[in-house]
Amino acid sequence: MKKRVILDVDTGSDDAVAIMYAILSGEFDVKGIMVSFGNQALGYTLLNTLKIRELLKSEVKIYKGAAGPLVADLMPGFKENTKVISLEGGRDGREIAIHEKIFELPDPRKREEPVSAVPWLIKTLTEAEEPVTLIPVGPLTNLALALKAEPRIGEKIEEIVCMGGGVFVNNITPCAEINFYNDPEAAKIVLHSELPIRLITLDATHNSWFGYEEVEKMKKIGNPAADFAAYLLKNRIDAANALGVRQVKKSALHDVLAVAAVSHPEVITRMEAQDCDIDVGTGYARGGLFVDRRPSAEKGRLVQIAYEADKEMLCGLLLEALGKYPGEGL
Ligand code: RIB
Ligand code: CA
């Protein structure tokens, strides 16, 4: 039976590839896609999500969610830290971005649903006959709001498989990964919900990099979805190197690992159940995920934390899914 899932995205280059896998693989009954701010402002992340749905010729419903974090913008001195931080810049008079503001794809013919993401999520879970797996791969704002407004939805959540945090690897600050940093209070609410959670951290996603070799494999498939995935991956690698984010000729497609971990849990090759928390202070470590590795660590509220992944398997799953594109092209 197909896994019932709801995605929560901030599309974003790797979110786009995650949506492609979720829709094309045939592994999922996707109940809906919620969108929040994150990689870009909400208007852009929503538009990009609509464009990807169109590209995939999918009928999945899309719901507009949070335009900003729960409280971070209200904290003195923190506006700067919580405005959209996308990895972008310029070189030789050309704009470069890991997450382009607007995907170069045709304008969508269909818009998002008239109801917004949080009330939709509450209603959908409340009425669900079977539990649903949530796959948030952006800031956790929508989910935190829903859990606060109606905690009983927890009874219908099979599991939360979330791309977020890093234990030994971080990106936006020395201590924090960007999804958690974009709304640390929301991440804390979700982590403290006592629901079953698998965290697909940067440690695991950086352990399953894709390079130019994978770009070529995607191109060889030869359909519009695979071509666009190849374009996004190539752009990620080129941009990261040009911006000096890293000097390796590869890029992690973080969000697709979270979706693949739901259809194929064995793609995560090292997972540990650990006590952890998020820093919501206003200092250097804000938004950081911290794991208690002391032998005396609490064994009560444990979260499954992914550290390593099988890159070959992830790549194989993604290529296979891209090969299932249903049409003749745009
Ligand atoms: O840190 C990786 C995460 O932040 C991914 O979800 C990606 O989309 C980025 O914004
Ligand atoms: Ca994302």
- Biggest sheet strand line-up: 3-2-1-6-7-8-14-11
Order of helices and strands: EHEHEHEEHEHEHHEHEHHEHEEEEH
Silhouette: globular
Helix content: 25-40%
Class from secondary-structure proportions: alpha/beta
Question: What number is the mean pLDDT?
Answer: 92
- What are the low-pLDDT stretches, counting only 5+ consecutive residues below 50? none
According to DSSP, the number of beta strands is: 14
Distance between the termini: 31 Å
Largest sheet: 8 strands, mixed
Write structural notes for this entry:
This protein is an alpha/beta fold and 330 residues long. The chain has twelve helices and 14 strands. The protein has helices at residues 13-24, 42-55, 79-82, 117-127, 141-149, 178-182, 184-191, 202-205, 212-221, 224-242, 254-263, 311-322; strands at residues 3-9, 28-35, 62-64, 88-91, 94-97, 132-136, 157-163, 197-200, 210-211, 250-251, 268-274, 276-278, 289-291, 303-309. The strands form four sheets. It has an eight-stranded mixed sheet, with helices on both faces. A two-stranded antiparallel ribbon has the order 4-5. A two-stranded antiparallel ribbon has the order 9-10. Helix 1 runs parallel beside helix 11 (254-263), helix 1 crosses helix 12 and helix 4 packs across helix 5 (141-149). The two termini are 31 Å apart. The structure holds alpha-D-ribofuranose (RIB) and calcium ion (CA). Residues 10, 12, 14-15, 38-39, 137-138, 255 line the site of calcium ion.
